[in-house]
Design a protein that fits this description.
By secondary structure, the chain is an alpha+beta fold. The protein contains eleven helices and nine strands. It has two domains: 85 residues; 251 residues, Bira Bifunctional Protein, Domain 2 (BirA Bifunctional Protein, domain 2, 2-Layer Sandwich). The strands form two sheets. Strands 1-4-5-9-8-7-6 form a seven-stranded mixed β-sheet, with helices on both faces. Helix 1 packs parallel to helix 4, helix 2 runs antiparallel to helix 4 and helix 3 packs antiparallel against helix 4. The structure holds 3,4-dihydroxyphenylalanine. 3,4-dihydroxyphenylalanine binds next to strand 8 and strand 9.
């Protein structure tokens, strides 16, 4: 009998059912009411008392082992079944997974940066709270220039002073501090901090004290450009900006430069591009002129270079500044500036496919 038990033991040990039917057959064969174990116990009754002492233990252990094996196999088949039940049904509609969208201004800023990066421009940033020197004086703004007027500039007062025209805060040198009105202040910081050559673009937010409407806002975004080296000419400026426009608005976009005035550049110009909406035929956006102004530019005034301790006899350079909102309006035909800062999800969602 011992021999039989050891044969059965190895049979049970190597048993691996593929499904419930095989396991049930196993149970009936070994543990059933007419099963092997039952038979062994019957046979056990007939052996001698001496044999019983040894066999009893062996037989009981065998029975426990068979039962335990059955339990383990049953549980493992159940877990296999459960995981099969929960397997993905790819025909079911998926659960919605909401992707965020990039803000259109971020998309356009990124595009602008990519184009200039390929031309060897670095990207730099400066503070939004500026002093008079960096925002105005170093940029050659005359003392009485209207842009310094309270109407355009948000001056900052650190301690509340409710009286009209009350003392504003200063930078410690007695100069007023304010929210920067343009990113040209970053040019000054860059030139002060390093040595030429400089070739960088400087994106950032700027603030102006304007009534909010579809066409004006109290804050908006600019990208400033600066290139200072020996022998930089107006032709370099034109070619760089021409290339930029072809990349951003597509080959064939026309440009024209109109003489203009900025305190920090001489000569200065404004650059128009052929309206990307009507392709120059005339539409509401370009006021039926076929042209849209997108930036100001010019050769950096020697006074500005000297203010930043750069030898204006040795170095020349150009600068330009553009509004990101204006370019975004053109690219996406957006007519109201307020949409950019109202966080209306219906507006923002339209740029979902533009994830980069
Ligand atoms: N800072 C000017 C503005 O806010 C834009 C500008 C014009 C920047 C000419 C420049 C420039 O660097 O050369 O309107």
């Amino acid at each position: 009998m011992q021999e039989k038990i050891s044969q059965y033991t190895s049979e049970i040990n190597s048993f691996q059912p593929k499904n419930n039917d095989e396991l049930e057959a196993f149970r009936i064969r070994f543990l059933g009411t007419k099963g092997i174990i039952k038979d062994l116990f019957e046979a056990f009754k007939t052996v001698s008392a001496e044999e019983k002492r040894i066999l009893g233990k062996v037989l009981n252990e065998f029975k426990q082992m068979a039962e335990a094996k059955y339990q383990i196999l049953k549980e493992s088949l159940e877990t296999v079944e459960k995981s099969a039940d929960s397997e993905l049904d790819l025909t079911l509609p998926g659960e919605g997974f909401e992707l965020g969208a990039r803000h259109p201004l971020s998309l356009v800023r990124k595009e602008i940066i990519e184009i200039f990066k390929k031309l060897g421009f670095n990207v730099a940033e400066g503070p939004e709270i500026e002093d008079d020197w960096h925002n105005f004086s170093a940029l050659n703004f005359p003392e009485e220039h209207p842009a310094r007027d309270m109407q355009d500039t948000f001056f900052i007062r650190l301690s509340p002073d409710p009286s009209p025209g009350g003392e504003g805060s200063t930078n410690g040198k007695g100069e007023a501090i304010a929210l920067r009105t343009h990113t040209s202040s970053v040019q000054v910081r860059m030139m002060e901090a390093g040595k030429p050559p400089f070739r960088a673009i400087m994106p950032g937010r700027v603030y102006r004290n304007e009534a909010i409407s579809a066409r004006a806002h109290c804050f908006f975004h600019q990208v400033e450009g600066l290139y200072i080296d020996e022998n930089v000419s107006f032709a370099d400026l034109k070619q760089t900006l021409f290339h930029f426009v072809q990349e951003l608005f597509g080959a064939g976009t026309k440009v024209r430069f109109r003489p203009s005035y900025f305190p920090f550049t001489e000569p200065s110009a404004e650059m128009d591009i052929s309206c990307s909406i009507c392709k120059g035929d005339g539409c509401q956006f370009c006021k039926y002129s076929g042209w849209v102004e997108i930036l100001g530019c010019g050769m950096v005034d020697p006074n500005v270079l000297e203010n930043c301790n750069i030898d204006s006899k040795k170095f020349t350079g150009y600068a330009f500044g553009m509004g990101i909102e204006r370019i975004t309006n053109l690219k996406y035909q957006i007519k109201d500036l307020r949409l950019f800062s109202e966080n209306d999800i219906r507006f923002l969602k339209q740029f979902q496919s533009e994830m980069i």
